[in-house]
Structure formats: C-alpha cells, structure tokens
Amino acid sequence: MLDRHEAHEKGQELPHRDAADRAVTNRPAADREVPLPGTAAAEGSALVIQQWLDGEVSETEARRADAKQVDMWNRVHLDTAARRRMVTPSHVMANVMAAIPDAPFEKQVAMAAVIDTMVSTPAGRVSRSAALVIGAGLFAAGIVLGKLL
Amino acid sequence: MTEEELPQADVDSDQDVIARIIAGDRNAFAMLIGRYSDPLYRHALGMTGSPDVAEDILQTSFIKAFQHLGEVRGRFDAWLFRIVANGCKDWLKNIRRTHLSYDEDDQPSTYASPDEDLDRTELRTDLDDALAQLAASLREAFIMKHVEGRSYEEMADLLGTTVGALKMRVHRAREALQALLEEKYA
Lengths: 149, 186
Prior knowledge:
By secondary structure, chain A is mostly helical.
C-alpha cells in the first residue's frame, strides 16, 4: 500500500484515519475541487487504483482491478520511499549560519524601546506637546515676519 | 544524546527557541534548521528536480526566516514551509518564463545511504521528467503526499486548503503521471 506510512509514523490506528477521511468526504461539494468540464472523474478500475493509493482498499483488490497499474505504482513507491530518506547536505546549515547577521534584532528591539518610551511615559507626552507648541510658535512667527516684510 | 532521543518535555518548543534567538542567542537558529531542513529539502528537491536549486531555495528561505523571526504568528513549521513552498513556485514561474533547462545542473542527490547514491534509476529520471510536466499545484500535492509522506489533513493545514481539494489534486497528479509513465512501466 502506497501511503500508509504516515499513519504508522503518528502511531495512529489506520481505521481512525480512514474514518477521518470519510468525514471529509461528507463536506459540501462547494468545499471541494471538482473535475473540470470534459475531464472524466476516475471510475472503474482507475477509481480502485486511486482508492488503493489512498489506502482505502487492499492491494489484492487493486490487483483484481488492474495488476499492471499496481506493479507500476509499486515501482514508483520504491523510488518515492528512497527520496523520503534523502537528507539535507551538511554544508547547507553551515552556509545559512555563516550568512545570517550576528544580531538582527538589536536594532529593532532598541528602536521599539525608544518608541515605547516616547509614547507611553508622561515625559514622552510632554516632549511631544512641547514639540507641537514650538512648531506652532515657529509657524506663527513665520506669518508675522512675512507680513512685516 | 540527540534532540530526537530526549523526552518531549526536555526538547525546547519552537517558540522557546525563537525567543532565545530574539534575545540574542543566534546559534540557537541551528536547532531550528536541524529540525526542519530535511523535509523542506525533500520538498524543494521534488518541486525543482535539481539538488543545487533546492539547496539555494532552502538557504535563502532560512535566511529570510531568520530575518523575520519576530513576525512569526502561530506555527513556525507551517510559516517556514510556506516560505520554502513559495520559493519553489517562484523558481518554477521564472524557469518556465525564461525557458531554461535545469537538467544540465542536475547532480546526484544526497541520500541517507551510499548504496542509494548509486541507484539513480531510469525510473527516477522518467518520474522527474513526468513531474516536471505537471502544473505546480499538482506536483506540489503529489510530492507532499507520496514523497514527503504527509497525510491529507497535514497538507491541508500547511497549504491552507481543504482535504477534498487536495485529494482532487493528488488524484489528478496521479492520473497525469500514469498517462506519462504507463507506456513504459505498465
């Protein structure tokens, strides 16, 4: 069977997972992708093969429907199982660790701390009010100077 | 003792590790790389068909993740997966637009055992070629189901779609692969 491994990995009993899958098929049709017009949905032996690949029927049953397809998918399964054991080349981690900055968060944290102080402390509010008064004063002085000239 | 051998309670959660990194423990990021690099590498390799490209995407994704660690909301592994998956899709878009062939760059992949390293079969090449002909969403669904061995529920969680939609994608991918491979293998 092609995809039973994930159930074993999680220590989950197969009937539970199958039951979960069945519950999903009960969802409204709008919740599912449907075949495009002109594209026939799997039926007959093709449907049995699909069900076998989804772990819903036994290999014996699938063989009865189409033994050649079962053999082909078993070969594919051997290849995908080998791919599943591939590991990341060790230099990838070394490259990443060499490329990341030493302290990416210092600046952000420091800036956040400054903003917090400005916004949340009474002193910050005073500073902001004072800046507004000074700005308004300078604007008024500019208008007066403009009239005088 | 490796991290895998430790009892669950002794293994730092992703959130704990992220908090350490944000607090300045840059080296803790290696722990996150160790936890997630293998499945993500397999995903990138399956999607691109090229070990070199898969490595590049993985490296870029981890660096991007490090730079934006403070923005993680919810599950880190799902967030990281999306970065890698988007990297793969972007690469596929570009490669199709420029009509470049990546076969020339293809090199033997890294396997867990040396024996497998020698076993780059004809079927593997044919399967890679067939996968390359699938739409990105179908290829992604097939790789996640049959190469990464994920359940439909897990796939739906990572891709933000429904189990029904993913079943349909996997079925379509299999039908297309069957059509491409059956003349030679069935």
